[in-house]
Design a protein that fits this description.
alpha/beta; Aspartate carbamoyltransferase; about 40% helix; about 325 residues; 2 domains; Rossmann fold; single chain; binds phosphoric acid mono(formamide)ester; 4-stranded parallel β-sheet; 9 strands; EC 2.1.3.2
Length: about 325
């Protein structure tokens, strides 16, 4: 297979396992490119990509921008806070105005779940979802699984626990879809109030015991508590949350095996994970960030080649 089955990257749910493996094989090649002295290829020369961020971001935004530059694309960046959105312009009008300046592809982060799907149905451009509310964050899940694959080779049969605020997490949902498509077993762990009631229908196990989940898993993906998406208190205090679901080095050292610790960032050091763990040999957090550029290069390249955009190959 040399072509994606989709025209946009809106989520992992509608990708096939073959799509994911094609993205990984392409990212393997781009990872080699970005580790060369000359880190640039001409593949997307003369293609213009707009990065529309209606919500804050450090990693995803810079990673997409670097991926675009490494592929020789032209880029324009848009922040909602400094745009005419604050004057009442709609999302469709905003994007159509940007597209009329001969933009070929749109990368968008938006606080509303479904915003990327909505855009793909209402404007004439290729859309890449860089995170839509608590719905999906497909490139994060791809870079997470790619990083696990580097460490553990085949993910088939591997046990992965996702710990923390599952209820408000787009990373959790995209990871569940991605890992299951690659044959991994997935468990979620956190306080009852932060685990969606329907989650078992996705075929994941549920646990409220971190120590027991660490004993079960090969990989633990630690998530931040997303206070900004919470309108009520889901647990009595941050201190209590940390006592029950915060990961410490003694917990890892007490296991009779080596497990891999991941975190999508941003980290709240001392809450869901201590600094000792984040900076330890158990952690592949910075490898995840590094792999994000290669994964995003692969996604942009494959979508552009599917649409045969003025393509340099
Ligand atoms: N992991 C992630 O999406 O980080 P940012 O919010 O900084 O992009």
């Amino acid at each position: 297979m040399s072509e994606l089955s989709v025209d946009h990257l809106l989520g992992i749910k509608n990708l096939s396992t073959e799509d994911i493996n094609l993205i990984f094989q392409t990212a393997d090649q781009f990872k080699e490119v970005i580790n060369r002295p000359i880190r640039k290829v001409p593949s997307l020369r003369d293609i213009t990509i707009a990065n529309l961020f209606f919500e804050n971001s450090t990693r995803t935004r810079l990673s997409f921008e670097l991926a675009e530059k490494r592929l020789s694309a032209d880029t324009v960046n848009f922040s909602a806070s400094s745009s005419s959105v604050s004057k009442g312009e709609t999302l469709i009008d905003t994007v159509n105005n940007i597209l009329s300046m001969k933009v070929d592809m749109v990368v968008m982060r938006h606080p509303n779940p479904g915003a990327a799907v909505f855009l793909s149905q209402n404007v004439d451009s290729t859309i890449v979802n860089a995170g839509d509310g608590a719905h999906e964050h497909p490139t994060q899940a791809l870079l997470d699984a790619f990083s696990m694959r580097e460490k553990h080779n085949d993910l088939k049969g591997k046990k992965v626990v996702i710990v923390g605020d599952i209820l408000h997490s787009r990373v959790a949902l995209s990871n569940i879809f991605c890992l299951q498509k690659l044959g991994a077993e997935v468990r979620v762990c956190g306080p009852t109030t932060l685990i969606p009631k329907y989650i078992h229908t996705l075929g994941v196990e549920v646990s409220h015991n971190l120590q027991e989940s660490l004993e079960w898993c090969d990989v633990a993906n630690m998530l931040r508590v997303q206070h900004e998406r919470q309108d009520i208190k889901y647990f009595p205090s941050v201190r209590e949350y940390t006592q029950q679901f915060g990961l410490t080095l003694p917990m890892l050292d007490s296991l009779k095996k080596d497990i891999t610790i991941m975190h999508p960032g941003p980290i709240n050091r001392g809450v869901e994970i201590t600094s000792e763990v984040a900076d330890s040999d158990y952690s592949i957090i910075l490898n995840q960030v590094e792999n994000g550029v290669a994964i995003r290069m692969a996604v942009l390249y494959l979508l552009a080649s599917k649409k045969k955009m003025n393509f340099k190959g």
